[in-house]
Specification:
This protein has 384 residues and is α/β, with parallel strands linked by helices. Helices cover 40% and strands 18% of the residues. It is built from 13 helices and 13 strands. Helix 1 (20-33) packs across helix 2 and helix 11 (322-332) crosses helix 12. The model is unreliable at 106-114 (pLDDT under 50).
Amino acid sequence: MDETLREYHEYANLFPIMQGDDFDVLKEDILSNGLIDPIWLCDEKIIDGRNRHMACLETNTPLKFRIYEGNDPLGFVISTNLHRRHLNETQRAGVAAKIANMERGNFSKSANLQDSPVSIPQAAEMLNVGERTVATYKAVAAAAPEFVEKMDSGEMTAHAAQKEVKKKMRDEERDKIANAGASVPVSDRWNIYHGDINDIALDKQYDFIITDPPYPREYLPLYEVLSMRANEWLKPEGLLIAMCGQSYLNEIYELMESHMNYYWTACYLTPGQATSLWQKQINTNWKPLLIYSKEKYNGKTFGDVFKSDDNEKDYHKWGQSVSGMLSIIKQICLPGQSILDPFCGAGTTGIAALQHGCLFDGIDIEIDNVNISKARLNDTTKTR
């Protein structure tokens, strides 16, 4: 047999091929020192040493072979690769995922190992990797095969790939909903306007403005614009309720008070793990709700602590939960009253408003957000 044409054993193919600098270093070593470790054969195929085999061919280095005569070729391949190569957790998980649920008879010549498939826990233990990472790798490979090569090469972790898959699925769902919402007619209980808060004209006034403007520093001027436009859009006895982050709270107070009367600061409790404000060395589980009045508030008495039961980012990366917005609306608004959200995003405030029996109008500068809001509010209206 022409030794340069040796086939690679299926067990050897479980592990990723060396690429880039790692393979160049191997070639340099073989070119300088020759092939020190022999290439292992099983059933006349290369079971260990694919990279050394290719490096020898590219450097015209004489080949050396050794026959594997043990009864656990899979264990041999795993052991030698884990000992020799610096594979990260995701790369090891990829190998375990390929082994899991395959018949043991494929892997061992020992009769007592041929009865049942290799389970995910067993495969994970073989590769010294967590079961959850193996399951994550398998889920990503099934949902988005285009990420497999990046995970196997070490370019992307399974966790990072999973986040990309979820983002891709969210984006696809957003596009689907936006396309459906583009043709939804205006309801007599709600409307969504496409426009910029700086110059959009509305011909009505509202009992409440409840909104969640963007938090990054570059958007701070919007809080002053919001305060100014609220003077046009609020009824005399109404309230402006604006969620914000804590980082620039002192500046936001100053911007808002230039056009509205400060009324109160309430607390909006957020669920799950605390948000880390690394620049301040603070972990926070709440957001301020800034409340301003136009003239004299003349509504119901309400508490100043509100709570979200879960995180909902499926429709908008900065979105709040329906439960959280409903907590605010239920405590402050009466059914039949009107609410405006000038930064409506994916329409979550509108859904909560309709669930409480209120009327709702929203504004957003992004047409996709407008259409997503229309689709979601239309569905909410049909189910009530």
